[in-house]
Every structure is written in C-alpha cells, then in structure tokens.
Amino acid sequence: MFPERKVLLVVNPISGDLDKDVIFEKVIAAADAGGYDLRIYQTTGDNDPETIREMVKNINPERVMVAGGDGTISMVAQSICNTDIILGIIPAGSANGLAVDFGVSGSLDFALETAFGANVIGVDAVRINGDISLHLSDIGLNALLVKNYENSDTRGKLGYAREMLKTLSEHQNFRVRITTSTEVIETEALIVIIANAQKYGTGVSINPTGNMSDGFFELVIAKKLDFIETAKILTGNTDFNPEIMQVISVQQADIECLDTEAHFQIDGEYKGTVKNLKAEILKGYVKVAVP
Ligand SMILES: Nc1ncnc2c1ncn2[C@@H]1O[C@H](COP(=O)(O)OP(=O)(O)OP(=O)(O)O)[C@@H](O)[C@H]1O
C-alpha cells in the first residue's frame, strides 16, 4: 500500500551555492520519518511552471517543498495558489530574501522542521499588471540596478558594487501619481516600492511594519536622496528612514509615471520600463509552513 500522504520536492539544481545532495538526503529522511510518499522534480529552466502544475494535478500532494531561490519559490507558489496544498521552503538561493521574510533562515535542519511542521499561514500576493509579486517589486532606482546586475558578467559583492555605482550615475528621478481608494499623491520619486514583505535580499528593512498575511500591501515612496544615502540603502547598510520615505498601506493602487517611463522589477526579476502599473492585493493567495 502506498501512503496517502504525498509530498513533492522541487529542487533548482543551479540556485545559490548549497550542496543539493545534502538537501535530497535530508528531505528523503524527513519524508520517511513522517510517513510521506516523496516525489522529486528538478527544474530545468524550460517549461517548469507547466510541468510542476501537471505533477501537482497528478500527484495531489499534501505539501510541496521547494529548494531554490526566490524565483523558484515564487514559481512554485503560483503553481499551487488557491489550493489547500502547503508550501514548505528550503532556502537554497543566492539571496533568499523571501525565505528570510518568512522567518526561514539558519540551518537546513531548521528549514526542514519548519517545512514539515504544523504551523501554516495564508500568505497574500500582489497582482501587478497581471504578474504576481510575493515579496518586493519596485519602479525606479532598484529596478535599474536589477537590470544592470542581470546584464553584467561579474557576480558577487564586487560585481554588485560596480553595478551600483553605474546605476547611481545613470538613474534619474521621475514624477509619479499614485491613486488609491482614499488619496492621490503626486511627487518626484527616486523609487516607489510595492511591498508585500519587509526586507530586500540585502537585508535592508524597507517596510518595517509589513505583514504578508494582513490583506494589505505597502507603497514605500522614496523622494530625492543624496548619493551616499542612496548607496547605503542599495548596499543594505541602512534601514527604513521615515524622514525620507513615505509609506501607505493599501489594498489597491494605480501608479502612473508622468514624464517618462520607469524601470520596473518584480521579486528580483527585471521587467522592462513601464508608464502605468495597477496593483491589487490577493488575500490568502498561498498556504506556507512557517516557524
Ligand atoms: N536546470 C536549470 N538550468 C538552468 N537554469 C535553471 C535551471 N532550473 C532553473 N533555472 C533558472 O533558475 C532561475 C531561478 O533561480 P532562483 O531564483 O531559484 O535562484 P537564485 O537566482 O540563485 O536565487 P535568488 O533568487 O535568491 O538570488 C530561473 O531563471 C530558472 O529559469
């Protein structure tokens, strides 16, 4: 007899620098101890969302464990949204901002205990122009940095620092109009962040009151900053400063760039330039196992 309780493990073999063999061994042992029938899928970078959806439909797992970075976690979350399937997170990316925001940081054993544990919450998502953001998306300075970093051939801290200097010299502020159900804000901006979570992968806490389950997201609007202040934010050396940033908590918002198109990124992935964004909260989008 096959056990009724099934679990699917999705592993991105190329993410971060973690030895995936250790993850396989530990998940196999934990699934065995919990009486789960374990299935494994390694992502290929080609048609993964479709394949995972199909596997989820056929296997009907109680949980899906994901070992990868933010991109893989977000992809798997979108494959099981609005179901009772529980997402278990095993951080294995280069930055793991999403996992950190879920409180899943530290040892692999801790992540596994959490991923197989009983504490489960419904996590919201933000739909932005039809795409899904679980973490932090923005227009302006940081999105340009994401673009420059994606296009550069150096990786690591040095590459990041080089792209940051390039970004700071290229960036221009833009005029933006933000319309919510209660107000219209028109301002010059360096960056407008659409924040479901609190922290960037660099560790900088940009939205200290953010809660991923409250049915709201925040708009964090940073007006003109000086060079040093901006560099500190981008490198994760300073946290949210209420004197230079405005935060509003909303369920939906329209964002219009008034004079020029602005660079746009969703959860660390560059999306090109945009003039208009429509953002709305999707409450209880996916069930996630948390500490
Ligand atoms: N087998 C594979 N070969 C090449 N690319 C892959 C493969 N599997 C997944 N990918 C790609 O990996 C990317 C997602 O990476 P992911 O976000 O998980 O890790 P990361 O970039 O190391 O971490 P972080 O988001 O924390 O910086 C996607 O672009 C996906 O297409």
UniProtKB/TrEMBL annotation:
It comes from the Bacteria. InterPro entries: ATP-NAD_kinase_N, Diacylglycerol_kinase_cat_dom, Lipid_Phosphate_FormReg, NAD/diacylglycerol_kinase_sf, YegS/DAGK_C. GO terms for molecular function: kinase activity. Residues 2-132 form the DAGKc domain. PROSITE patterns: DAGK. SUPFAM superfamilies: NAD kinase/diacylglycerol kinase-like. Pfam families: DAGK_cat (PF00781), YegS_C (PF19279). Keywords: ATP-binding, Kinase, Nucleotide-binding, Transferase. SMART domains: DAGKc. This is Diacylglycerol kinase. It comes from Dyadobacter sandarakinus.
